[in-house]
# Entry
Amino acid sequence: MSTLQNKRILLGVTGGIAAYKSAELIRGLREQGAEVVVVMTEAAQEFITPLTLQALSGNPVHTSLLDPAAEAAMGHIELARWADRILVAPASADFMARLAGGMGNDLLTTLCLATRAPVMLAPAMNQAMWDNPTTQYNLTQLQSTLGGIYGPGSGSQACGEIGPGRMLEPLELVERLAASFSTGQLTGQHVVITAGPTREPLDPVRYLSNYSSGKMGYALANAAIEAGAQVTLISGPCQQPTPERVNMVMVQSAEQMLDASLTAAANADIFIGAAAVCDYRPMQVSHEKLKKQGDGALTLTLTPNPDIIATVAQRFPNIFTAAFAAETENLLKYARAKRLRKGVHCIIANDVSDQSIGFNSDQNAVTLIDGDSDTQLDQRSKTQLARDLINLLAQKNKQAKDTTP
Ligand code: C5P
# Structure
């Protein structure tokens, strides 16, 4: 199993002779399951053509900040949000200087400024340029702000000199990038996540349900795996691909989800309720297909479903529990009340009156509420949000365990 499966890598290529290695790098990233979008600086295009990198990445190559056609297809802010990681390989001395100076004078520097994803550099340049005090000063700046500086290696250079400044080999860069996704923060912990909708049967061919896509719960499962957890994902019917390395439990109704949750909770450390559980189910499930009642109205009697996360929180007080609260008004007030009502440690509140986030969108923005404070996570991809949430929940779980006598 590769840790780059389904990861979105924005590969920045700047002007240096090592740019020819980008071709092999793209192949390596894709072989590991990553989706790759390439951004080239003007100088990079002197060394290798956008067409080559487009063919290898399978995606259009972006070259200009001010290209109306490219902006219309995928704007630069969208591209910055799309990426899980930005890897600039090769990163030239000039690019490092511009980035260290906070400049946004081309597409690649602008993306590095605009993204919330970690930015990694693989420097490549002549050894004297690398040793130059200005480059070393820029390096020090970048080391404290970027996600990682990979290399450079040392050895014979294209210019005939010998010394530090060689770009690391593509295979090593792929491995370093893959390793950057595993935080190890939840190693040894069992995380249980509910996801997707539930289906409440009415008769053999009909059910009541909702539009939940399951995206947030599945993204949380992937993020928890990245953090090293053992993950049980209890999911209602949805179209999301099964994450690798999870213990997958597929269910239909809320009652089935409750049973599966109580079984999994018996040895869980963290329980996250991301499922959109139907509040009610038909009181009676007909064994026969319900017949149309002439032109008259049909009245269904519904009975409340059990509250899964509240039941887990009550029966297993040692488990760290987090529930979602989707609200259209008074978000924080209702979410705080929900936290107390359900007896959970945290509530992840999201405003579903905003069409651009939530339910079926790829983006979300939430506020995490616990007894002490509110933490706001503004709009980002569900994948990135899931990582940030897992990171926060892992910290809060640790704090809760450390303060429990
Ligand atoms: O009460 P409400 O449906 O707004 O609460 C949402 C949160 O509670 C979500 O985390 C959801 O997974 C969980 N929930 C549950 N069982 C229910 C209803 C909601 O676990 N019956």
The first strand starts at residue 8 and ends at 13.
